[in-house]
Amino acid sequence: MTPADRLAALIRIPTVSDAATRDEAAFVAFRATLAELYPLLHERLERAEVAGGALHLVWRGGTAAPVVLMAHHDVVPVADQPWHRDPFGGEVVDGVLHGRGALDDKGPLVAVLEAVEGLLAEGFVPAGDVHVVSGHDEEVRGSGAQAIAQTLRAQGVRPALVLDEGGAVVEGIVPGVAGRLAMIGLTERGTAEVRLTVRSSGGHAAVPPRRQAAVRLATALTRIERHPFPARSNAAIVAMAAALAPRLPAPVGAVLRSRTSAPLVARLLGALGGVTGALVRTTVAVTRIRAGEAANVLAAEGTAELNVRIAPGDDVQGVLARLRRIVRDPAVEVELIAGDEPAPLSRAHGPAWDRVAAAVAAAYPDALPVPYVMVQASDARHFSGLGADVYRFMPFAITAEELAAIHGADERVSVAALDAAIAFHRALLTAG
Fold first, then answer.
1. Could you tell me the pTM of the whole model?
2. Residue 341 phi, psi (nearest 5)
3. Where is the Peptidase M20 dimerisation domain (predicted)?
């Protein structure tokens, strides 16, 4: 079997994280299939199942500081998405592997496992211990990887490097910058789940009051949309600008190399909006709204749920305070359901960064390593307290269309990108 064949076999096992329909038998089958596909790894590495299904594999090595390589194996649902192929078919067509999890995050997991299995077959011994961590509930903000991080902390394990999903090798995403970029996340935004609630006495719809609960809720949401959080710079943005400067025309590049340009860069990125704007500002998405149960009855209560992604420089309590100021209505309750602060900032220099950059060069000689702020959340945030540089990077060369298909229909990855990702991990593991 080829690496693509093994990834296809794992994609065919629907390890979907969904509280209502989660099939634990699929997760049991996935773990059993891993043991069949990677026999040396399961024979020679220490193996533990944690918190109901997260995997912790330890490859013992020399005396150097350990490395932690992460990739979760649960995936998001496919219901109501317009897939053109079976999302759990694992089909390879014209050098492209199709299926849920191809990129998020079974593909990256296979890249790690292929590298380890191959090196084991060659008799290689790593310079330090290698911890392979695969969460089983990352997509639902679960506890698997978090429990493993707590175990490592209790054992006093201090890795030199932690690597999890994040940026990829991309081209054409930064205006004016030519060539391929390896986008390596130095941090990730925090998250907050916020609920807005408005209550009233309800009543018959034939005699509506002037300030209905649903209308007050809609007014609050409109105010939030009209007052976005300000764009602001941070150390990761400064490092990103400095890295991109050599590939930009001289006048622009010279400006970006100056730290005094940081506020200007932040405002420019913020004005571009979309993914680019999300690098420099806290964002608020309205994900659920509910008000009323019948067509002829006034809603006695209206609720809206907000998904807030918190940029470095902001924090959970500051987000709540700002939302309350924007809403400006004492009848609208602004309540925090859950929240995580932005992750600490890792370094874009030093031995850990140099090791990742060297592995990028081995797999993608033409790609420029570029630090950035990861706009999504990952299991990596749980490992920040171990004292390591934590990077968020998926060593796959992907197109804008492939990037957009993550969590959407027609998720896919090229076989060539999978092979390059394996080469990246071999270079990373054999360094030092």
1. 0.91
2. -70, 160
3. 187-333
